[in-house]
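Hi there,

I know you've been waiting on this one. I reran it after we fixed the sequence typo, so this is the corrected version. Both the input and the resulting structure follow.
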Amino acid sequence: MLFDLLKACVLGIIEGLTEYLPVSSTGHLLLMDHFFGFDDDDFGKAFVVLIQLGAILALLSIYFVRLWKIALALPHDSDARRFAIGVLVAFLPAAVIGAVSYGIIKSVLFNVWIVCTMLIAGGAALLWIDRLELKARYHDATRFPLPMYLGIGIIQCISMIPGVSRSGATIVGAMLFGADRRSAAEFSFYLAIPTMIGAFVYEVYKSRAELSGGNALVIAVGFVASFIAGWIVVKTFLDYVSRHGFALFAWWRIAAGALGLIGMALVG
């Protein structure tokens, strides 16, 4: 039981930390499963779903006031309406492609070799975008042009390949379209809300027959760990990338991917 609680805590922390950092939460969880035997089946589908919910609620708890103000302004503020439409437009490409390609993604792309390769490639992309001398034209994530929201949403679809990172793809896309680091990272949070909730609801629906109550204490530990880790990341990430860029996360990805490939070559 103690070991199960430890595993639940570790998986919850990994989910909470990596969900909003540009390092790929899915990729890290798959590597943990492959090399350390931290298997989802130990706790059942309910555990995996509920620790993801912890990370979602961490984000919502921080952005609730801002989102509520935007919601109240919708009837009379054109900027609020444009932002709400922009988030929806950015969300739709991933929603459509994810629903259509769910089976292929799960059966073909959830592969450790692919994860490690994408971790390294994504790290290289972050180093590249960090060193480009881009002239930022947009400094407020709520005031991007509608075509830019759509472009970011299309680029986000790349993150359906495990190891790419949803937040990483969103940030790189936003910066290429003219956002500064902070607004690009912040929009990745805004876009995470419908994307993660949509994925959460869809996963619950697809796995409804497999969901079980499981061990309530184990699930609670994973949920709380995910919430706390996610809350810390959301509160600190914007200031960090504004000052230091993405190099730390890029090199972490490259190191994790390289070690994964070495491990696969040595032990399979």
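Quick highlight: The mean pLDDT is 88.

Best,
R. S.
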